Amino acid sequence: MVNSSDGLTVALDITITDDLENEGLARELVNRLQNLRKQSDLNVTDRIRLSIVSQAKLDKAIRQFENYICTETLAEHLNLVSALDTSTSIDVNDMIVQIFIEKV
């Protein structure tokens, strides 16, 4: 996208790359997990274990930004699993994600 005004020209590349999309998904996941931590009455300093039901699109973002996700949510373990017996559903960018949070 290019725009000019009063002798000044600005060009922006607004292409959403796979890396940008994955980062956005990871950030949205962290936001939802932080909300879930609050709803679960976890203390700000409580360490957790996360289990998330695998979904191809989300798995890529989780793998690429696993350290970020774990650091932000205080997760000592993050496991991608095929199914969960007990879970909570969260919406991450129009994907329904099954997740289980356990205090360590």
CATH topology: hypothetical protein PF0899 fold
* Mean of all residue-level pLDDT scores: 96
Number of helices: 3
Fraction of residues in helix: 25-40%
What number of domains? Answer: 1
End-to-end CA span: 48 Å
CATH class type: Alpha Beta
Percent strand: 25-35%
Extract low-pLDDT stretches: none
Structural category is: alpha+beta
Radius of gyration (Å): 17 Å
CATH architecture: 2-Layer Sandwich
Sheet with most strands: 4 strands, mixed
Tell me, briefly, the overall form: elongated
Order of helices and strands: EEHEHHEEE
Spatial strand arrangement across the major sheet = 4-3-6-5
Task: Say what oligomer this is.
Answer: single chain
Describe the structure.
The structure is a single chain. With 104 residues, this protein is α+β, with helices and mostly antiparallel strands. The chain has a single domain (2-103), classed as hypothetical protein PF0899 fold (2-Layer Sandwich). It is 38% helix and 34% strand. The protein contains 3 helices and 6 strands. Strands 4-3-6-5 form a 4-stranded mixed beta sheet, covered by helices on one side. Strands 1-2 form a two-stranded antiparallel ribbon. A hairpin with a 2-residue loop joins strand 5 (88-92) and strand 6. Helix 1 packs across helix 2 (56-64) and helix 1 runs parallel beside helix 3 (66-73). The relative contact order is 0.22. The mean pLDDT is 96.
